[in-house]
Amino acid sequence: MNRITVSIAAAALATFASFALAQKPIIYPAKGQSAEQQKKDDGACLSWAKQNTGIDPAVASAPPPQKTGPAVGGGERLKGAAGGAVIGGIAGDAGTGAAVGTVVGGAKARRNQKAENQQAQQQQQQTLATYYKAYGACMEGRGYTVK
Protein backbone atom coordinates (compact mmCIF):
# COMPACT_ATOMS: atom_id res chain seq x y z
CA MET A 1 0.00 0.00 0.00
CA ASN A 2 1.50 3.31 -0.96
CA ARG A 3 1.79 6.29 1.33
CA ILE A 4 -1.05 8.27 -0.31
CA THR A 5 -3.52 5.39 0.07
CA VAL A 6 -2.58 5.00 3.74
CA SER A 7 -2.98 8.75 4.30
CA ILE A 8 -6.42 8.78 2.66
CA ALA A 9 -7.54 5.76 4.69
CA ALA A 10 -6.30 7.35 7.92
CA ALA A 11 -8.09 10.63 7.14
CA ALA A 12 -11.33 8.78 6.36
CA LEU A 13 -11.09 6.82 9.60
CA ALA A 14 -10.43 9.99 11.61
CA THR A 15 -13.39 11.71 9.97
CA PHE A 16 -15.67 8.73 10.67
CA ALA A 17 -14.49 8.56 14.30
CA SER A 18 -15.12 12.27 14.80
CA PHE A 19 -18.65 11.92 13.41
CA ALA A 20 -19.33 9.20 15.97
CA LEU A 21 -18.08 11.42 18.79
CA ALA A 22 -20.17 14.43 17.81
CA GLN A 23 -23.59 12.84 18.09
CA LYS A 24 -26.05 13.67 20.84
CA PRO A 25 -25.56 11.18 23.68
CA ILE A 26 -28.23 8.68 24.62
CA ILE A 27 -29.91 9.52 27.93
CA TYR A 28 -31.51 6.99 30.31
CA PRO A 29 -33.53 7.97 33.38
CA ALA A 30 -31.62 6.49 36.32
CA LYS A 31 -33.87 7.74 39.11
CA GLY A 32 -37.33 6.94 37.78
CA GLN A 33 -37.85 10.25 35.96
CA SER A 34 -41.03 10.37 33.88
CA ALA A 35 -40.97 10.97 30.12
CA GLU A 36 -42.39 14.43 30.77
CA GLN A 37 -39.63 15.23 33.30
CA GLN A 38 -36.97 13.90 30.93
CA LYS A 39 -38.29 16.17 28.16
CA LYS A 40 -38.10 19.21 30.50
CA ASP A 41 -34.60 18.29 31.67
CA ASP A 42 -33.49 17.68 28.09
CA GLY A 43 -34.61 21.14 27.00
CA ALA A 44 -33.05 22.78 30.04
CA CYS A 45 -29.72 21.01 29.50
CA LEU A 46 -29.63 21.80 25.78
CA SER A 47 -30.10 25.47 26.66
CA TRP A 48 -27.54 25.27 29.47
CA ALA A 49 -24.96 23.68 27.19
CA LYS A 50 -25.52 26.35 24.54
CA GLN A 51 -25.21 29.15 27.08
CA ASN A 52 -22.13 27.75 28.81
CA THR A 53 -20.16 26.68 25.72
CA GLY A 54 -21.24 29.49 23.43
CA ILE A 55 -21.94 26.86 20.79
CA ASP A 56 -25.23 26.80 18.90
CA PRO A 57 -25.62 23.22 17.65
CA ALA A 58 -27.91 24.33 14.80
CA VAL A 59 -25.16 26.56 13.45
CA ALA A 60 -22.29 24.22 14.31
CA SER A 61 -23.90 21.23 12.60
CA ALA A 62 -24.17 23.01 9.24
CA PRO A 63 -21.58 21.53 6.88
CA PRO A 64 -18.43 23.64 6.76
CA PRO A 65 -17.84 25.36 3.42
CA GLN A 66 -15.69 23.18 1.20
CA LYS A 67 -13.02 24.67 -1.02
CA THR A 68 -13.74 23.51 -4.54
CA GLY A 69 -12.70 24.39 -8.03
CA PRO A 70 -9.17 24.90 -9.25
CA ALA A 71 -6.66 24.80 -6.45
CA VAL A 72 -4.95 28.17 -6.80
CA GLY A 73 -3.64 30.86 -4.54
CA GLY A 74 -0.86 29.05 -2.73
CA GLY A 75 1.66 29.55 -5.52
CA GLU A 76 2.31 25.83 -5.85
CA ARG A 77 1.88 25.82 -9.65
CA LEU A 78 4.15 28.83 -10.15
CA LYS A 79 6.80 27.40 -7.84
CA GLY A 80 6.56 24.05 -9.62
CA ALA A 81 6.85 25.70 -13.03
CA ALA A 82 9.88 27.73 -11.95
CA GLY A 83 11.60 24.72 -10.43
CA GLY A 84 10.77 22.59 -13.45
CA ALA A 85 12.11 25.24 -15.82
CA VAL A 86 15.39 25.37 -13.93
CA ILE A 87 15.74 21.60 -13.93
CA GLY A 88 14.57 21.42 -17.55
CA GLY A 89 17.09 24.12 -18.49
CA ILE A 90 19.89 22.05 -17.02
CA ALA A 91 18.61 19.02 -18.95
CA GLY A 92 18.21 21.07 -22.13
CA ASP A 93 14.38 21.58 -22.29
CA ALA A 94 13.15 24.32 -19.97
CA GLY A 95 9.64 24.34 -21.52
CA THR A 96 8.97 20.68 -20.78
CA GLY A 97 10.46 21.08 -17.32
CA ALA A 98 8.15 24.01 -16.60
CA ALA A 99 5.10 22.05 -17.80
CA VAL A 100 5.96 19.07 -15.62
CA GLY A 101 6.61 21.41 -12.68
CA THR A 102 3.20 23.04 -13.18
CA VAL A 103 1.46 19.64 -13.04
CA VAL A 104 3.37 18.65 -9.92
CA GLY A 105 2.56 22.02 -8.31
CA GLY A 106 -1.13 21.57 -9.18
CA ALA A 107 -1.20 18.15 -7.52
CA LYS A 108 0.33 19.66 -4.39
CA ALA A 109 -2.27 22.46 -4.43
CA ARG A 110 -5.10 19.90 -4.65
CA ARG A 111 -3.66 17.94 -1.71
CA ASN A 112 -3.45 21.14 0.33
CA GLN A 113 -7.06 22.02 -0.56
CA LYS A 114 -8.26 18.57 0.47
CA ALA A 115 -6.35 18.79 3.77
CA GLU A 116 -7.92 22.19 4.52
CA ASN A 117 -11.41 20.78 3.87
CA GLN A 118 -10.74 17.82 6.17
CA GLN A 119 -9.40 20.12 8.88
CA ALA A 120 -12.55 22.29 8.73
CA GLN A 121 -14.71 19.19 9.02
CA GLN A 122 -12.74 17.89 12.01
CA GLN A 123 -12.96 21.29 13.73
CA GLN A 124 -16.73 21.25 13.27
CA GLN A 125 -16.97 17.79 14.83
CA GLN A 126 -14.80 18.84 17.78
CA THR A 127 -17.05 21.84 18.36
CA LEU A 128 -20.16 19.65 18.41
CA ALA A 129 -18.44 17.13 20.68
CA THR A 130 -17.69 19.94 23.17
CA TYR A 131 -21.33 21.02 23.14
CA TYR A 132 -22.65 17.48 23.66
CA LYS A 133 -20.14 16.83 26.43
CA ALA A 134 -21.56 19.83 28.32
CA TYR A 135 -25.11 18.61 27.62
CA GLY A 136 -24.24 15.14 28.95
CA ALA A 137 -22.69 16.62 32.10
CA CYS A 138 -25.88 18.59 32.76
CA MET A 139 -28.07 15.51 32.29
CA GLU A 140 -25.83 13.45 34.59
CA GLY A 141 -26.19 16.19 37.18
CA ARG A 142 -29.95 15.77 36.96
CA GLY A 143 -29.77 12.05 37.67
CA TYR A 144 -29.62 10.49 34.19
CA THR A 145 -27.24 7.91 32.81
CA VAL A 146 -25.43 9.19 29.72
CA LYS A 147 -24.08 6.88 26.99
Describe it.
With 147 residues, this protein is mainly alpha-helical. It has five helices and two strands, in the order αβααααβ. It has helices spanning 3-21, 35-53, 57-60, 76-91, 94-141; strands spanning 27-29, 144-146. A two-stranded antiparallel ribbon has the order 1-2. The longest helix is centred in the C-terminal third of the chain and has 48 residues, at 94-141. The two termini are 37 Å apart. Mean pLDDT is 75; it is low at 13-21.
Strand content: under 5%
Largest sheet: 2 strands, antiparallel
List the strand order in the largest sheet. 1-2
What order do the helices and strands follow?
A: HEHHHHE
Q: What would you report as the Rg, rounded to the nearest angstrom?
A: 24 Å
Tally of distinct domains: 1
How many beta-strand segments? 2
Helix content: over 70%
Helix vs. strand class: mainly alpha
Unreliable stretches:
13-21
Number of helices: 5
**Which overall shape is indicated by the principal axes computed on the Cα atoms?**
rod-shaped
Report how far the terminal alpha carbons are from each other: 37 Å
**pLDDT averaged residue by residue:** 75
What's the gist of this structure?
The protein has helices at residues 3-21, 35-53, 57-60, 76-91, 94-141; strands at 27-29, 144-146. With 147 residues, the chain is mostly helical.
Name the descriptors.
rod-shaped, mainly alpha, single chain, 5 helices, about 150 residues, two-stranded antiparallel sheet
SSE map:
Layout: H1 3-21, E1 27-29, H2 35-53, H3 57-60, H4 76-91, H5 94-141, E2 144-146
Antiparallel strand pairs: 1-2
Helix pairs in contact: 1-5, 2-5, 4-5
